[in-house]
Amino acid sequence: MNLKIPNFTNFPLLNPPSEIIDVRSENEFNEDHIPGAINLPVLHNEERKKIGTIYKQISPFEAKKLGASLVFNNISQHIHQHLLDKKPGYTPLIYCWRGGQRSQSLAVILAQIGWDVMVLKGGYKTYRSYVCQQLATLPLQFDYHMLCGLTGTGKTYFLQGLKQQGYQVLDLEKVANHRGSLLGERWKSDVKSQPSQKYFDSLLLQQFQKFHAEQPIWIESESYKIGNVYLPGSLWKKMKQSPCVEIQLPLEKRVNLLVEEYSYLIENPEILKDKLKYLKTYYGWNKLSQWYDWIAKKEWKQLVEDLLITHYDPAYERSLKQMSSKIIKTIDLSDLDLDYFLESLS
Fold first, then answer.
1. What are the pLDDT digits (tens) for 111-162?
2. Which residue of the set 96, 132, 148, 244 is catalytic?
3. What superfamily in CATH does domain 7-132 come from?
4. Structure pTM?
5. Where are the alpha helices (DSSP H) in 7-138?
6. Catalytic (active site) residue 96
């Protein structure tokens, strides 16, 4: 009887698999993974930790025995819960940290069932190396048009409008899941939702691979850091040198837009106060107390207007001076008028 064996493949993949399976632990997967991969751990978080302790404190032999038991129990569950309905033509790609025992333990069993199974040579480390290499050079191959403007001028809104019209758009704040300012963290139930730096890199590369070098990419003017993640140096270098279209919107309109967009902070005033306390170093206790008083009185428009005038607008002016790019056009709007914005670009 001839039993199938897994095939080893390099990255990037020549042929798309039916499914990409990451067999690392949940924590490893959450830190970063190939976009689109599913997580079927052959060792869960606590199991992996336990095996490592036994390996160091007792013996490698005892660790391998227990590890084998846990691995095959988990594989059995994955087959029952996820793989029983797969057809004969199913062709999964499997990877672990280095393409070693964890990935091969699942791959061998699936191959012997009869599926054409691929294992990523070098595992996640091979993939991560590829991401770093690509991000060091790929962003340099594109031209960029920057969209800049004071906080609250609707830059994200107009970027979305450009995308709907067929322009190439890179929404960095969407990829980073952060609005790029002190109050920009997007959260739910007090759980931080920004991707890790490594997964941000993965998502960013995925975006770049969809673009065409013969067309410019529209991108919002951002700082080098968005929340807790950093832009690749290659991208930041190009952004600083790219032409910029500036949007201007009346202060009243900006205030109204921000009150609407940041409603989740208005609904959670204690979190808002906790974030604002970081500005005490720059503006003093009297200013912070004034902001707190407006929060207590729910005078949101007064608060937002003062934050813009005191903090955000001066910060924007300083950021412009750090960029070597030139403002090639200023679009003065009275409202979020997408049609007028698009006409003004021509």
1. 999 999 999 999 999 999 999 999 999 999 999 999 999 999 999 999 999 9
2. 96
3. Rhodanese-like domain (3.40.250.10)
4. 0.91
5. 26-31, 45-57, 60-78, 101-113, 123-137
6. yes
